[in-house]
Amino acid sequence: MVIPWLVMIGICLIVIKSFFDFFHGKSFAQVLEMKESRFSIEIFMALLIIYIILMFGYGMIYFILSIEGIVLVENGELRQVSIIGSIIHSVYFSGVTLLSVGYGDITPVGIGRFIALTQALIGYILPAAFVVRVLQSRDRSRDI
């Protein structure tokens, strides 16, 4: 009963560390050298990796909550699905929530609503954060 919550806390710590490293410029700024072009494959790949980490991280949080009895409701009715089906639904819901407003075919119940709200907020703020980060790195490189 305690192990799923420990796994969920571990996933949350990984997601928080990814954000912390991004905003403080430790891992991505050192690994990926920003170029002066308008489109940079390094920046695109960094954004893609962060989105994948967030999608699977939140998907695993939804999956752990579904194991604990807090489920995602599909088409307005509670459905019992297999473990693999639950993982697929959780990652699908996570991706739809992160990348769009959502389709409404799967809705969260209970604390899942708050978690989906935070994920949607991150999905909207992340592209703007990347633009600001690129502009800051360009300003720093011009000052040097």
From TrEMBL:
Mention one GO biological process in which this protein takes part, according to its record. monoatomic ion transmembrane transport
The domain of life for this entry's organism is Bacteria
Q: Which UniProt keywords apply?
A: Ion channel, Ion transport, Membrane, Transmembrane, Transmembrane helix, Transport
**Ranges for domain Potassium channel:** 51-134
Q: Please name the InterPro entries in this protein's record.
A: K_chnl_dom
Q: Does the keyword Ion transport apply?
A: yes
Q: Which residues form the signal peptide?
A: none
Q: Known Pfam families for this protein?
A: Ion_trans_2
Which residues span the membrane?
A: 6-23, 43-65, 114-135
This chain's protein is named Two pore domain potassium channel family protein
